[in-house]
Design brief:
heterodimer, A: mainly alpha, two-stranded antiparallel ribbon, 18 helices, 6 strands, disordered N terminus, B: alpha+beta, 8 helices, 9 strands, about 15% strand, elongated
Amino acid sequence: MAANLPNQAQVQGGIGVTEPNTTHHEHELHDDHHHDQHWLFKYVFSTDHKVIAKQFLITGIFWAILGGTLSSIFRLQLGWPESTMAWLTPVLGKWVEAGKLNPEFYLSLVTMHGTIMVFFVLTAGLSGTFSNFLIPLQVGARDMASGFMNMLSYWFFFTSSVIMFLSIFLETGPAAAGWTIYPPLSALPQAIPGSGMGMTMWLVSMALFIVSQLLGGVNYITTVINLRTRGMSMSKLPLTIWAFFLTAILGLLAFPVLFSAALLLIFDRSFGTSFFLSDIYIAGQALPNTGGSPILFQHLFWFLGHPEVYIVIMPAMGMVSEILATNSRKPIFGYRAMIGSLLGISLLSFVVWAHHMFVTGMNPFLGSVFMFLTLIIAVPSAVKTFNWLATLWRGNIRFTSAMLFSIGFVSLFISGGLTGIILGNAALDIQMHNTYFVVAHFHLVMGSSAFFGLFAGVYHWFPKMFGRMMDEKLGYIHFWLTFLGVYLVFLPMHYVGIAGFPRRYYAWTGFEMFSQFADLNKFISIAAILAFFAQFIFVFNFFYSIFRGRRATENPWRSTTLEWTTPVVPGHGNWPGEIPAVYRWPYDYSKPGAEQDFIPQNVPYSKTQSSNLPYENENE
Amino acid sequence: MTALGILLVLALLLVVFGLLFRLQILTSIFSGSSAREFGTSNRVNGILMLVFMVVGGAAFAWSFGDNYDKMNPPIASVHGHATERMFWITMIIIGIVFVLTQILLFVYSYKYQHQEGRRAYFFPHNNKIEIIWTVIPAIVMAALVFAGWKEWTRITGPAPKDAVVLEVMGKQFNWLVRYPGRDMKLGVVNYRLIDATNEFGFDLSDKAGLDDFVPGEIHVPKGHPVLLKIRSRDVLHAVYMPHFRVQMYAVPGMPTKFWFTPTKSTDEMRAQLGNSKFNYELACNQICGRGHFAMKFTIVVDEPDDYVAWYAQQKSFSEQNPDVLASFKQKEEKLVVKEAAAAVATPATKASL
């Protein structure tokens, strides 16, 4: 086994105490500083990774409700394009004109829905919450490498959120060029009013968001590399940590490229440069810009944008692996293959971006190369799926809410992932590009799946976060309504897509070729709005259980990883005494010969003679 | 008043739900079921997994079959038949994988639900199985890539020399179309010359542009390759013609192209669909602003003879707009020198008809 020396000194984030992790002052850690700590620094400007995680989570819930509301409004428009929207005037004000939704505001709705869900909910809310919460707890560290940077990470995100939120109330409306903000539409206020102040605020907000991601990412990577406890070699890390670790690396490499794209776009918008603009006649005027390329922007955008979908889904994959193993009472099948496939996905995610651009006029040879690379990425994804199935096989499954959402995740990941094989094929993408087939595909494979991962994570780690349990019955109802709702929305959406219905259309009524699915679109809208309302069961359960939920025990799921060795509500520094050392991998469930059906990572082999495998005895 | 009533009813309903929820918790504590790790709910969830698979699967199969006819736009191009075939073959392959994996997922969930006294099978890995299920997807993917690559190369390869050439230009919020006229050469255009009349930005000092014409709908001959030269003059648009399985972005400053061969005339398609009002349509498929959803243009596929007759009847832009032509005659000398460098359109390829 690898040497585990780097953990001798645990650096204390935020407090700046260096504790030799061996003998004496182990009890000081905890009680010193914090009784007299001002509430402002305990709950608001906190450097404690657990508090920061909760801040990310609650901000994420706020954004998810807003993002869902926006989608309900545009689903109303798509389901009933002829009906009056006058009753929404009290909420939307001037965006309802003579009983009709303003078409430009419709585009703002889809743009903000995408931006909010992808970045603010599924990147910050998912990875921000669980990377923060679980990395120190599961690797056995007192806190993040730099608690202060971690705090900054949240507050940059918060500032970014405030700016994005305020932009919704602008007179000219928020950004409206789609969440991919392709120029020239996003560069020219003459093209759409949302590209005025709304777009400026979008770009500023996103720049701050990227700073937040980088501060967080550096921290996650450093913590995983340097602050693992004694015995916690990389090959003993839970899959959650592997997923967060690789996600952080992806973010660190990809987000700066989006930053550069945003910067160049700011230059084009405000300082008269021509990076993305050329030969444009608009609003009665020929612009002086020549020589720029809108396609260049797309390359830069998708160089982030594609790894971004893996940034969204990999933390969910990690958590689902962990939860499936715990609740099947079985080791995750093919631990090394799971790590290998995560590595493969991470690597490949950087060389597939142009599959979003097959029909942009890009050289067709380039299209061939990217088609090849794109379809390769299906292989590690398939391996992961088979391994999850094999983990369930001959298990002893306990259906907790978290387990249900994890099983749901696998189902949605299969359903959504498979259609990627069609979209990754350039010849087939000619017809499918930018249709509802694409919308259905990515809402299943990255949208809903990642949401299911998020829910699974919240239900599973809620006891450690708040010391109480969420209500299981409400969890079941929430799961079944959501699972059904998601399929009722996105399966029929494929039909609409195969028929060629374009996305980001305010209405399809102008075209004869898009006239056939009016009923189906109504159906999708109803299902979407019901599924959205079902989420309030979760919101209620979440906030109710924080205060009134059943009290949790230290290890309610009988799980093996280190976070369950902490007190019911871990305090600052996580472990009151010495940090436990790690002796075994995190998936010793139902090991033959063992007394219980799980052996925590911090139990040495010398205490489990009856269940040790031959090579494990040698190791001791 | 009614709104207030509705709000009141909703509020009362929420209170009722809240009380029921509280009651349920109290009874479960009283009956002791909250203390048990595995209540009846584990069994219920297991059964629901199976029910979801059977009922959901059946509903999916039924609705797919029910909508199958509606989701297939009739095909009217040569490569469209090839990609359509590939699409449905791929769908069958992923459909098989979909059915198998989902069945395993739900059946395993049901079958291996918790039972007192049973222990899960300690099965951390098995290299043989893992190699098999890595290699098989890899082989299937390789086959699909190869087929897709071959078709993609054929579709995006150079257009036949004798293709009919026309130019489609996107603008907020409609399409403009230009044919090269009798000389089979598209004239020079320049975006700086665009105004309300000269929407294409014709530079009529170029003789090749004098006979270019700008019709109100696209006409193409059946059975003959057609090369679309695609431009945009403001933001991104995309030429999307679902019946021909054609899609290509219109990019300002970067002309793009796509060629295809229509196989059915508009009249034939009308007869086939039993819809005398049917028309091939062109839609915009890249978000471009307020009117994005309404950028419709009609495409007519003619029998070759009809096409030739239609082509001959068209009046050139310069003929219809003598004022524009006159303005160029006046400043001809200067313009040719000054603007030639900034010309955007490349000389057209020859057309045979």
